[in-house]
Amino acid sequence: MSLEAFPHAEYAEDQRSERYILTIHVFHRAFTTGAIVGTFGYLGAAVLLRRRYPNRFPLNLLQISRAAATGSVVGPAFAGAGLVLRMYGREKIEWQDRSWRLLANEGQNRVDRWSLAGILLGSGTMLALSRRRGWQSIAAKDGLTNINSIAMIRGWRVPVGGAALGSMGGVVGYLVDANSRGKPASVGDAAGLPKDISLEPTTRT
To answer: Which of the listed residues 73, 87, 186, 191 has the most CB atoms within 10 Å of its CB?
Structure first.
């Protein structure tokens, strides 16, 4: 869900849905971050350990998407716990101020658009591919039984993995697009680290 769906108040103290806005932002970024960690963690393990365990780290899209799916679920779980620890007991205005700044950050809004487009495209693509007979043979070649291969293809990690990979692709697309337009962007921007919003209070004086 894009944060642009929420109305942006003129002043932070008037910002509504502040808890939803901040929570959605944290979970969205953690989804992508978890996907990145899961994907590259799997690829790193495959490179380092594949000779010793040749059947445990097959390099195909099905397995990589499953690794991305796992990371994209674990990431928000940790991020949710961190959000609770950081914001527990905070005043309402602190939630409002943070959510107000996010809505005011055009860079964050662009990241959301690119990432959501990637999520939809990636999930749909993986669902379509999983219906092809060739995918069952791919799973079977990895040493799985016929029943297990079907479960692997039809499981939740196929669409979620596609969404995770699509989210990563969306962030890459945002970075390429922003830099090609002469508006330099970094991974920090895509990760939700604001730099173009004043840190001064955004409430009425």
So the answer is: 73
Whole-angstrom distance, CA of residue 60 vs CA of residue 116: 24
What secondary structure, in 3-state letters, does the chain show? CCHHHCCCCCCHHHCCCHHHHHHHHHHHHHHHHHHHHHHHHHHHHHHHHCCCCCCCCCCCHHHHHHHHHHHHHHHHHHHHHHHHHHHCCCCHHHHHHHHHHHHHCHHHHHHHHHHHHHHHHHHHHHHHHHCCHHHHHHHHHCCCCHHHHHHHHHCCHHHHHHHHHHHHHHHHHHHHHHHHCCCCCCHHHHCCCCCCCCCCCCCCC
- How many CB atoms sit inside 10 A of residue 91's CB? 8
Tokens of 191: 């990760």
Q: Which tens digits make up the pLDDT trace of 76-134?
A: 999 999 999 999 999 999 999 999 999 988 888 888 899 999 999 999 988 887 776 55
Residue 163 pLDDT level (bands cut at 50, 70, 90)? very high
Note the pLDDT tens digit of each residue in 98-109: 999 999 888 888
Question: Using CB atoms within 10 A of its CB, is residue 70 exposed (0-12), middle (13-18) or buried (19+)?
Answer: buried
Nearest of 40, 22, 123, 117 to residue 79 by alpha carbon: 22
User: Which residue's entry shows tokens 């293809």?
Assistant: 153
Q: How confident is the model at residue 53 (pLDDT cuts 50, 70, 90)?
A: confident
